[in-house]
Amino acid sequence: MKRLGTVWFLGFLVIVLAFGVSIAQARSLDQIIKAGEIRVGINPTLPPLGLFNEKNEIDGFDKDFAVEIAKKLGVKLKVVRVGSPDRIPFVAADKIDFVMGAMTRNSARAKIIDFTLPITTEAFGVLTTKKIPYENYKEFNRKDITFVQVRGTTPIPFIQKNLPKAKILLLDNYPDVIRAIAQGRADAMIDVIDYMWKYMKTHKQVKWKVIKTPVEIYFNCLGVAKGNYTLRDWLNVAIYELYRDGVVDRLWEKWFGGPIVFKVHWSEWF
Q: What is the pLDDT of residue 10?
């Protein structure tokens, strides 16, 4: 998820000092193949990217994507549970070969690890209904528009800064936010739209509309150890093939319940 670069970088250094994480020599592609196993870090607290299933096992989009990577590599998959604070230290300490879990690409993190090609997006957009005529998020800057948002989330200061005329209704969770729009108690919300599909489906009578104009888009990649080019380059080829063969789109619709709102535009030239 999105973080402020400097704050994040300092936070990483604190973790390194606090837990004694050292920068270790990462396993090369050949070493992973010889070991017959690839270790992938997945955060199970970011459904549907990562979650615990009824067997209390880690599941979700990231798990299925990692399975496809292991198949192409011809090795077994070892899923390692990670959290947001320890994702990158685990890569740096060679506890995992690469990390998933909404690993947003940014210049601060790129000082510590290397990123592959993007695999998914996090797109902040406007969810509203067809009763609202506007097609650009800037048109929602009106006194007769009420946004409904989850308390403490990133879009709130964005609305306050960029759409100051609009009202904001704050609720405690996403099901309540979606219900408020469905019942006409609010007009719209701004958030990562892809995470809202499953909630929208509980209100099938509503004619939902997603404003295509992106408010902001972030790219999620696989994070590998700094300088581990043999693994990173192979993963880039594998990602290209998974996109070309439609695997990524299929897995996305399986877990998110709808197509990705803002696609990654893959190319034979990478």
A: 53
Name the pairing type of β-strands 208-225 and 98-99.
antiparallel
Tell me the Cα Rg of the chain.
20
Phi/psi at 74 (5° precision)? 75, 30
Q: Which segments of 39-182 does DSSP mark as H helices, in order?
A: 61-73, 87-92, 155-162, 174-182
Cα 63 from Cα 82, distance rounded (Å):
13
Q: Six-digit token pair at 167?
A: 């009202």
For 145, other C-beta atoms within 10 Å of its C-beta total 19
Phi, psi of 137 (to 5 degrees): -60, -25
The pTM score is 0.78
Q: Which of 180, 177, 171, 183 is nearest to 195 (CA)?
A: 177
Integer Cα distance of 143 and 87 in angstroms: 42
Determine the distance from the C-alpha atom of residue 39 to the mean position of all C-alpha atoms in its chain, rounded to a whole number: 20
> Do residues 45 and 83 make contact, with C-beta atoms less than 8 angstroms apart?
yes
How many CB atoms sit inside 10 A of residue 25's CB? 10
Specify the DSSP class assigned to residue 224.
E
pLDDT, tens only, 212-222: 777 888 899 99
Among 1-10, 45-54, 161-170, 252-261, where is mean pLDDT lowest? 1-10
Which one-letter DSSP state was computed for residue 188? B
- What's the token pair of residue 247? 């695997």
Contacts of 248 (CB under 8 A, 6+ apart): 65, 119, 120, 242, 264
| 15: pLDDT strictly greater than 80 | no
Instruction: Determine contact, residues 24/93, Cβ cutoff 8 Å.
Output: yes
